[in-house]
Design goal:
The complex is a heterodimer of chains A (519) and B (474). With 519 residues, chain A is mainly beta. Chain A is 4% helix and 49% strand. In chain B, a hairpin with a 3-residue loop joins strand 1 and strand 2. Classes of the chains: A mainly beta (519), B mainly beta (474).
């Protein structure tokens, strides 16, 4: 609401102004002390750490609605004059959580941090000009002749009422081409929500400040690409770090990190800024040619709140993970992993540009030869069924198996080679696995290996008969988990992790059978 | 970057000093006087606005501009020397083209027709007969519908009716004894102003210390700026009578319930802060302008090197088997006491925890909400789940020992892939009723009828096992 009243509050200030061309002086009001506005247009260096949406579970990334977040840390070079100044940070992300912003490097000089969400829009421009003398311009559509005159905006809430030299009129209810023009942008309106700090310093300061904040609308996940060896006993494992930025801001040449693990986060509501159109309504406009004439305004712009939607993201589906290039070509740019408190931090070794509204893939980790056991599994609670078994690749996360590193949650695609051709064998996903854990890659169903269970209700005694059939030309290891009360006839079941395990090797093109009772 | 600097200067210098007309109030200047704002946590604020009014002797009607757009008109009071209030009005009959036309029914307006070909203007006086669906006018001796021919026609009204206003306006009719300028205090409640605390905790795990900065975050969604206001924040929620229409302001949806953690033991120390009744007061050190749609943060707490420790907690909800090992919660424990902690009462807000990475850059490692916390409290905030610490609860055996009793043998396997030995608080919940522990591999502590706890040491890169047999009714 304040207006620039003076460009020159004092001679001392004039000197400072010569030295620092970016400072504009304004006096905010009669009571407030004069303060300089200093704008920091862009950071010198950016670092971004991306955090996963832990509620997403194993769902794929939805580029239009990213539930993760990022910690952005920007180094900015600023020059502040002596006295009180308002340091404005431009080019921060639009998903910024203003409460989380931290400014370091200015010490005790920071009086307050502000984030203003009053946006410059046609509606707010007119609102802020309420009561001001503006220019009304009318243009004849036929002759092109323009008539310019002074006008005062008297109301903007529900249609625009203006006062001209002739009297009170309504804007754009006349059938004429008319508009009002405003001499300057009111102070306090900006194109994007603005983050600023109010600083007081006894002498001019030139320094680097670090601005850190949490921003919404980022996410990442690991995308594993596994290639199975000819004998099926080993896989080569490669993982992409898939980053997604749903924000409109480009993080150029940024030091990039990703954090694996599940952190607690409070959901906060951030005012996305208020952008209003000019609301034109007129008096009843019915004429004798209307049939059931009721109100039909000439121009009716519905007032609407700005809702952050992803519709402008144009919905490109997330591309499938590209097959890995040969290790030599990648040049060893795998991310460096380190322990950060109780989670894991992955550091991308080179600075990269995280473009706006885009997805990016970087090498995360690689293990050329991981020993796996290919088994088929089923868990049953009883009843009658005839179902295919689940194919699972089992390994242990230790170096003796060729693995031995933390595995962040993500998707897995398993490929095999047949006659020199790459074939997708299955897709699955994993949760976070730490060192020395048993790792299971569930890659899909094996249609040729089936389990059929039938119930035999004998004399007061229910028994189950389970038959596993194998249509493959090789023997298959099958693990079937039965309830704790299961007791098998003629076979020994093993107790494992709260289930009774029947582990059997089904011969090639053969069957295996089990009869058991519950309790 | 230099060109951007120059552009900014050019814009600022180019902004002309705009001549103001005295006929209408200057929009850049607020009508507010000496403003004092008191903000509570529950979206409520008390505004005290001391204005200098020039009152005539006797009755007069005074309009108050620049009051909150979310004002609760029924709470307005006006105080001043020799000023008696006759009536208060909150007028929301808005000035709009339609309201103008409806008010002009029966009156004369000027009609200016513009010839589309020549641009020639013709002026006529017209009487508005009705404005229902369309506008019917009498011009001389003929009746006409406004703009029935679709040709341009300006309607010029002679004036604005006194009852129509650009914005909802508070007006008070006062009875003043003696004329003259005097201070008058306007007091009212409004919604749309709220505050909470935000804490930045930089945790140094190696040394068991943390630095904490506290910020007061206040938000103004009341539709009005408060210029150069003396601001006081009250850590508490004043009682609020239920309002069926929510005061016209729709707060954001409530956040989901927080995960376990928070206050472990409430403190009993009194903070050195100002107090009023049951509430702590946080005055802002300087007058400040709270702009509309603004989020403002002011520092109120800065503590270096307070003791803090990492702890691990795992809660099994029922005597059940999990499908896979589950991560334990990682908990940051600290105190708000005078000697061994932050040494202050903590207003409700969000604590964001940071730790330095290998290169020394602070990285975010989780956040948690706290309620108003007295000084001297023990606090445990669950900031996330441990990547390296997992617990797998397994039901080993379940046997029926009588028609109403069961025995459940549980085994908990705790694994630690980290390089340091740790202690995990293993809590078995769901013991409500008369569940007993018959045998256990280490001594447990019954926290409540529902919960029992083992403090289990787990070696570095190793595992530990706890077994217990529960005797329960189900």
């Amino acid at each position: 609401m304040a207006k620039p009243l003076s460009q020159r509050p004092s001679t001392a200030a004039t000197e400072v102004k010569r030295a620092l061309p970016l400072i504009a002086w304004v006096a905010l009001s009669a009571q407030a002390e004069p303060q300089a506005i200093v704008t920091s247009p862009a950071p010198v260096r950016v670092s971004v750490t991306v955090y996963r949406d832990t509620d997403r579970g194993l769902e794929p990334l939805n580029l239009q609605w990213l539930g993760g977040y990022a910690l952005v840390s920007e180094v900015r070079h600023v020059r502040l004059p002596a006295g009180t100044s308002d340091l404005r940070f431009q080019g921060v992300t639009s998903g910024i959580v203003p409460q989380s912003a931290i400014v370091t490097g200015l010490g005790l000089a920071v009086l307050e941090k502000n984030r203003d969400a009053r946006l410059l829009s046609p509606g707010s421009l007119l609102d802020a000009s309420l009561g001001e003398r503006l220019t009304l311009r009318r243009t004849s559509k036929e002759t092109g002749k323009t008539v310019v005159q002074d006008a005062i905006v008297r109301a903007t809430g529900d249609g625009v009422v203006i006062q001209t030299a002739s009297g009170i009129e309504a804007l754009r209810c006349t059938g004429l081409s008319e508009t009002v023009t405003v001499p300057s942008v009111p102070v306090g309106l900006s194109a994007k929500p603005t983050l600023s700090v109010k600083v007081r310093s006894p002498e001019p300061v030139e320094t680097d400040v670090t601005l850190s904040y949490i921003t919404n609308n980022f996410d990442w996940q690991a995308n594993y690409v596994a290639e199975q060896s000819a004998d099926g006993q080993r896989i080569s494992l490669f993982a992409w770090l898939t980053l997604a930025n749903g924000d409109a801001t480009v993080l150029a040449n940024a030091q990039t990190q990703a954090v694996a693990g599940k952190l607690n986060r409070q959901r906060v509501w951030v005012n996305p800024g208020e952008a209003k159109p000019i609301l034109i309504t007129c008096w009843p406009q019915g004429t004798t040619s209307d049939i059931a004439g009721e109100v039909s305004p000439v121009t009716m712009l519905a007032s609407e709140d700005i809702v952050v939607t992803g519709s402008r993201l144009a919905a490109p589906p997330p591309p499938p993970p590209p097959p890995p290039a040969a290790a030599a070509e990648r040049g060893g740019y795998d991310a460096e992993e380190e322990r950060l408190g109780e989670v894991r931090l992955y550091r991308v070794p080179i600075n990269v540009t995280v473009a706006s509204r885009s997805q990016k893939q970087l090498a995360l980790l690689e293990r050329p030869s991981v020993k796996v056991e290919r088994i088929l599994t089923l868990r049953t609670y009883g009843g009658t069924f005839d179902v295919p078994l689940q194919r699972v690749l089992v390994t242990h996360n230790r170096s003796s198996e060729g693995l031995g590193l933390p595995l962040p949650a993500g998707k897995l695609a398993l490929f095999g080679m047949k006659n020199g051709r790459r074939i997708l064998l299955g897709e699955g996903s994993i949760d976070d696995y730490t060192l020395n854990e048993k790792v299971e890659f569930k890659v899909g169903e094996a249609p040729g290996v089936r389990a059929k269970q039938t119930v035999d209700n004998g004399e007061g005694d229910t028994s189950f008969k389970l038959v596993v059939t194998n249509d493959m030309a090789s023997a298959q290891t099958v693990e079937i988990e039965l309830p704790l009360e299961a007791r098998a006839t003629g076979k020994k079941l093993v107790k494992r992790d709260g289930w009774m395990l029947w582990r059997v090797i089904v011969p090639a093109n053969g069957t295996a059978e089990l009869t058991y009772r519950l309790g | 970057m230099r060109s951007v600097f120059l552009l900014c200067t050019a814009l600022a210098v180019a902004a002309p000093v705009f001549a103001q007309q005295p006929a209408v109030p200057v929009p850049g200047q607020t009508a507010q006087g000496d403003v004092a704002v008191t903000i509570y946590n529950n979206d409520r604020a008390l505004i005290e606005d001391k204005r200098q009014l020039d009152l005539p002797n006797g009755r007069s009607r005074q309009e108050f501009r620049d009051v909150s757009a979310n004002i609760e008109p029924a709470t307005v009071t006006l105080n001043g020397r020799g000023v008696g209030v006759v009536e208060q009005n909150f007028d929301f009959d808005l000035l709009s083209p339609e309201a103008l036309m409806k008010n002009a029914v029966g009156q004369e307006v000027t009609l200016v027709r513009v010839n589309p070909a020549s641009g020639q203007e013709t002026r006529e006086r017209a009487r508005v007969l009705a404005a229902n669906g369309g506008v019917v006018m009498q011009i001389g001796d003929r009746i006409e519908v406004l703009r029935d021919d679709g040709l341009p026609a300006r309607v010029i009204f002679d004036g604005v009716p006194a009852s129509l206003r650009a914005r909802p306006t508070l007006s008070v009719t006062v009875d003043s004894s003696g004329g003259g300028r005097r201070p008058v205090t306007l007091t009212y409640l409004t919604t749309g102003l709220a505050w909470a605390a935000d804490y930045v905790a930089l945790f140094d795990e190696a040394n068991g210390r943390m630095d904490v900065q506290g910020w007061i975050t206040l938000t103004n969604n009341s539709g009005t700026p408060y210029t150069n206001a003396s601001t006081l924040l009250v850590a508490g929620s004043v009682g609020q009578a239920p309002n069926r229409y929510g005061g016209g302001y729709y707060p954001p949806p409530p956040p989901p319930p927080p995960p376990p953690g928070g206050l472990i033991r409430a403190g009993t120390q009194t903070s050195g802060r100002e107090r009023l009744g049951d509430f702590y007061l946080y005055p802002l050190p300087e007058r400040t302008t709270i702009a509309d749609k603004q989020t403002k943060q002011v520092s109120f707490l800065d503590v270096k090197s307070a003791p803090a420790a990492r702890a691990y907690e795992f809660r099994n909800g029922w005597l059940s088997t999990s499908n896979e090992p589950l991560s334990a919660d990682t908990v940051l424990r600290f105190s708000s006491s005078r000697d061994q902690g932050l040494g202050d009462a903590l207003p409700a807000g969000t604590v964001r925890v940071y730790q330095r990475d290998a290169r020394g850059n602070p990285q975010f490692v989780g956040e948690h909400h706290i309620n108003h916390t007295p000084m001297g409290s023990d606090i445990g905030l669950a900031t996330g789940q441990a990547f390296d610490v997992k617990v797998r609860p397994v039901v080993e055996e379940r046997t029926r020992i009588s028609s109403s009793r069961w025995k459940t043998r549980m085994r908990y396997t705790l694994t630690n892939a980290g390089p340091k030995p740790i202690v995990v608080d293993l809590i078995q919940s769901g013991l409500w009723g008369d569940t007993r522990i018959d045998v256990e591999s280490m001594k447990s502590e019954r926290l409540s009828a529902d919960d029992t706890r083992w403090k289990v040491p787990v070696p570095a890169n190793g595992e530990a096992t706890v077994t217990a047999t529960f005797d329960s009714r189900y």
